Amino acid sequence: MKKPHQIAFFNHKGGVSKTTSAFNIGWKLSEMGKRVLLVDCDPQCNLTGLVLEYGHEEEYPFEGPRNQPPKNIRDGLAPAFEARPIPIVPVEVQEVVLRPGLFVMPGHVGLSENENSLSIAHELSSSLTAFQNIPGSLRYLFDLTAAKNNIDYVIVDMSPSLGSLNQNILCTSDSFIVPMAPDFFSAMALRSLARVLPRWRAWSLKARELDILKEADYAWPSSDPKYLGSIVQNYRRRSRGGQEARPTQAYQKWFDELKRANSAHLIPALREIGYLLPDNAYEAASASIDDFLLEVPDFNSLIAVSQIVSKPVFALTQADIGSSGVVFEAQDKNIQDFNGIYNVGAEKIISMTNG
């Protein structure tokens, strides 16, 4: 079975554009010839609603009878979480109409119902065989579905929480990216992650050594997720003295604070638990962990159009926007600027993941 590279987009602080980042990076990687699967692991299903074109009718279109192949993540995991006497099978993923090679595993609000079962399984799977197939089932489902669709990258959009689902997903991923906003609470979140991730790592190492999980139908994977960097976004910038546009002074204050929290707290903690790549991998990708992987300014009015047409801002066309003349010229300049930003980001990711 082909082994895809799984990247988790994670921050337990909400409102930092995790879904937008996952979608945009996934789209850009597919533009570069990679086959990408976006997995919606947030029970709010924002990624599913953003990317897939459906009328949001009363009936959810990505759900079906139990005797048919699953069409969403919750139903895909049901054999493990509901102890059914049937094996996990690949989810019927949806290809993004406007971006061939980009696929979505739809989310489901009912995924949150699995949180308690997974939490219990994490605690008791060492002693109760009834729970042994649950911890390894998520990565197994993602890999199985990815193999069926010849996927290179699995990008997981996670919820803003420190629950067992996120613990499981991050610990079984190959790498992770931390989206942030330039504000006080994002700096606080970095310091929090520096305390939480070592505990998650210790739990994962313990799970790896349990015979009951090694012998499970969906064995616990031996993953050591590596930090690829952070994305800071949703800020305003200004050009001073004809120089390249930079964050305004108000935002620069928080850029500096994020870097301090990163270098003083998060990076030392990640280094201690082995969640960093070798230094030369970051250097080869021009992705210093002392800086941000990506700096994405405010999309302004373009984000509304992007959400309507289910395309990233950098993929918008004049027909999408509906403007002309000097107005479109200014908008197109911004579109090309964002395209360059995400090109660089995707190239860094490919380099660091040996893609």
Automatic annotation (TrEMBL):
SUPFAM superfamilies: P-loop containing nucleoside triphosphate hydrolases (SSF52540). InterPro entries: AAA_dom, DNA_Partitioning_ATPase, P-loop_NTPase. Residues 6-196 form the AAA domain. Pfam families: AAA_31. This is AAA domain-containing protein.
